[in-house]
């Protein structure tokens, strides 16, 4: 079984919008109440309190108006968050805020309470909600759950999680005939392939980012104009509360729309790039780099790209996997950029990231840094496939 989520844009009517917002509010409310009670209990008893939403329904009757599964899922999420915290995988669970947190709730499919039709998504308690079904759920798959969310720009989406049987896998050519491509995460480009092909993030993303900057500047100027002074801790005193300034709110909305536009465009582009690769080769080899560490350091402006590349890697991985193909991670310490792709000698002097082109001291081949690294990754992939022929990664 493979799990796959399909995300649809929803167009709820007025009553449905109201209901969704109520669900988001209740999910946030119950999260915060449970977190508070758990924390208080932990302080005195040093044990984790087990809680269910039922306990709160008597004190807060409005919780009964929304989907009870939405509340039950909050309980599971919160327990998961505490588990992650105790296992030191993440920080302490935080309180959710109306402004900062993503507005969403998750519900489960119980005997067809969640389903997808031609033009709508059916959800418990609210029924059919108009939606654009841009892609059908594969036949024979089972719907597990649905997550409704609202973006900062006020758009509604529903992500439907399905279980798909994975017995339909095409057979792959023999190991020697497989098309293997090395992919090097590159700094001026987005990636460079061992075929010499490189992809840059499209220039219109840069254009949108410029636009975003301009609008953000406008907003900060508007806020500046509304400040009458500062309190001791540099906290501004506003002439009027920001919520009442219609123009500031309007500007904030405008910025949220641009942010979403950029995210959507980047997402779309990553899907298309990874699809191209996934369809054209049988195995890809990537460097096992720590992208989180990379975005933390400011090396060569890679930081701005790192986010997009992580997304690209995830998409590529599942697109390969669903075709039964291979994604091979070269060892973190594999010196892909220092080896000569022709004769195999190691040249540590090219460690310096500023060197873009170099000549091999042994065989005299002229190398482009990134293409050479990608070729080495491909060769490494061939080696791994030969020694580990049966492993599907
Ligand atoms: Zn050489």
Please tell me about this protein's structure.
The structure is a single chain. A hairpin with a 6-residue loop joins strand 15 and strand 16. The protein folds into 2 domains: 163 residues, no CATH class; 149 residues, 2-Layer Sandwich (Nucleotidyltransferase, domain 5). The radius of gyration is 26 Å and the shape is globular. The chain has 393 residues and is α+β, with helices and mostly antiparallel strands. It has 8 helices and 16 strands. 40% of the residues lie in helices and 20% in strands. Helix 4 runs antiparallel to helix 5. The strands form 4 sheets. A 7-stranded antiparallel sheet has the order 2-6-7-1-5-4-3. The protein has a 5-stranded mixed sheet with strand order 10-9-8-13-14. It has a two-stranded antiparallel ribbon with strand order 11-12. About 2% of the residues have low confidence. The protein binds zinc ion.
| Poorly predicted residue ranges | 297-303
Q: How many distinct domains? A: 2
Q: Going across the biggest sheet, name each strand in turn.
A: 2-6-7-1-5-4-3
Largest sheet: 7 strands, antiparallel
Mean pLDDT level: 87
Cα separation of the termini: 16 Å
Number of helices: 8
């Amino acid at each position: 079984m493979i799990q796959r989520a399909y995300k649809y844009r929803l167009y709820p009517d007025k009553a449905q919008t109201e209901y969704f917002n109520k669900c988001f509010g209740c999910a946030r409310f119950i999260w915060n109440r449970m977190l508070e009670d758990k924390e208080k209990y932990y302080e005195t008893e040093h044990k984790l309190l087990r809680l269910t939403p039922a306990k709160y329904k008597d004190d807060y009757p409005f919780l009964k108006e929304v989907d009870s599964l939405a509340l039950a899922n909050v309980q599971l999420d919160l327990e998961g968050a505490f588990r992650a915290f105790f296992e030191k995988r993440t920080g302490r669970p935080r309180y959710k805020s109306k402004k900062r947190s993503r507005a969403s709730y998750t519900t489960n499919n119980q005997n067809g309470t969640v389903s997808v039709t031609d033009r709508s998504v059916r959800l418990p308690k609210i029924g059919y909600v108009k939606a654009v079904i841009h892609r059908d759920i594969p036949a024979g798959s089972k719907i597990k759950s649905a997550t409704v969310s609202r973006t900062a720009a006020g758009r509604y989406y529903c992500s439907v999680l399905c279980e798909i049987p994975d017995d339909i896998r095409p057979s792959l050519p023999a190991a020697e005939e497989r098309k293997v491509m090395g992919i090097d995460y590159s700094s001026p480009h987005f990636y460079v392939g061992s075929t010499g092909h490189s992809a840059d993030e499209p220039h219109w993303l840069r254009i949108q980012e410029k636009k975003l900057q301009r609008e953000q500047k406008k907003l900060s100027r508007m806020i500046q104009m509304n400040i009458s002074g500062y309190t001791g801790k540099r906290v501004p005193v506003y002439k009027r509360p920001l919520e009442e300034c219609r123009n500031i709110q309007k500007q904030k909305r405008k910025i949220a729309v641009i942010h979403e536009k950029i995210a959507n465009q980047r997402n779309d582009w990553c899907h298309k790039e990874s699809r191209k690769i996934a369809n054209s080769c049988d195995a890809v080899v990537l460097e096992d780099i720590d992208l989180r560490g990379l975005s933390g350091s400011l090396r060569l402006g890679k930081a701005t790209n790192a986010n997009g590349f992580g997304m690209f890697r995830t998409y590529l991985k599942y697109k390969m996997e669903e075709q039964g193909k291979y994604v091979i991670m070269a060892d973190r310490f594999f010196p892909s950029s220092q080896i000569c792709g022709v004769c195999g000698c190691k040249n540590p002097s090219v460690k310096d990231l500023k060197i873009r082109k170099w000549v091999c001291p042994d065989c005299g081949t002229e190398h482009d840094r990134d293409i050479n690294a990608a070729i080495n990754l491909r060769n490494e992939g061939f080696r791994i496939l030969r020694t580990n022929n049966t492993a599907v990664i």
